[in-house]
Design goal:
The chain has about 220 residues and is α/β, with parallel strands linked by helices. The chain has helices spanning about 70-75, 100-105, 120-125, 145-150, 155-170, 185-195; strands spanning about 20-30, 35-40, 85-90, 110-115, 135, 170-180, 205. The structure holds iron/sulfur cluster (SF4).
């Protein structure tokens, strides 16, 4: 579970109902290429990928581990020391109050990054004007998404979100986790075709990490 030493919210506290936070990294050099950032791990994800290495972040109704005021207070003290703040997850777009939370962070003078799989295209479209960078997961070929995420519409939603991202002009990085349990040769072939069709020359293939994942059937 991502965490820090800034203290945690009392169990079950919904700090002013703003945003539910499952973890916080006060400094990261790896979550936004070229930027020194803090990372807010939003609680909850509508998908259920077998390779998820943060499954504790999947339940949407788990209590917030941090108060929003704690996070803002910490960030206030880091102005000038951090370049930006990344909203990660879980799936940050699940949070109804994400635009308000992002606006509050931006008001402190930080650049804004988002990690997303694109599960909510309409919400994504609303936050895109606030963003300086997006790390976008292309999980598989569109037709293979439901087998990976266990969500019927996930392939369509991800592709619609990616179209919005492209149209927005916001800088982005795309990546795929090469889950050896999922990627049979035909699925890998379809993924490569998808990446080629989308013209993603700098697409990043990430190695699968067993750490933190739930037990898998061989
Ligand atoms: S989309 Fe990300 S957070 Fe959600 S289940 Fe898949 S790997 Fe985990």
């Amino acid at each position: 579970m991502p965490g820090s030493d800034i203290g945690t919210a009392a169990s079950g506290v919904w700090d002013r109902g703003l945003i539910r936070i499952g973890g916080f990294a006060p400094v990261s050099f790896a979550d936004w290429p070229g930027e020194i950032s803090a990372v807010i791990f939003c609680q909850g994800c509508p998908w259920d990928c077998g390779y998820c290495h943060n499954p504790d972040l999947i339940p949407a109704r788990a209590p917030s581990r941090y108060g929003w005021d704690q996070i803002l207070g910490f960030l206030r003290q880091r102005r000038g020391l951090l370049d930006g703040v990344v909203f990660s997850g879980g799936e940050p777009l699940l949070q109804k109050h994400l635009p308000a939370a992002m606006a509050a962070v931006k008001e402190l003078g930080f650049r804004l990054g988002l990690h997303t799989g694109g599960a909510y295209p309409a919400r994504f479209g609303r936050v895109l004007p606030l963003l300086d960078w997006v790390g976008f997961d292309i999980k598989a070929a569109p037709q293979d998404y439901p087998d990976l995420t266990h969500s019927r519409r996930s392939g369509d939603d991800a592709m619609e979100s990616f179209r919005l991202l492209r149209r927005s002009g916001v800088p982005f990085e795309t990546r795929t986790t090469l889950d050896p349990y999922f990627f049979t040769p035909p699925r890998l072939f379809r993924l490569e075709q998808t990446i080629r069709a989308l013209g993603l020359n700098d697409h990043r293939m990430q190695d699968y990490r067993e750490t933190g994942t739930r037990p898998r059937a061989g």
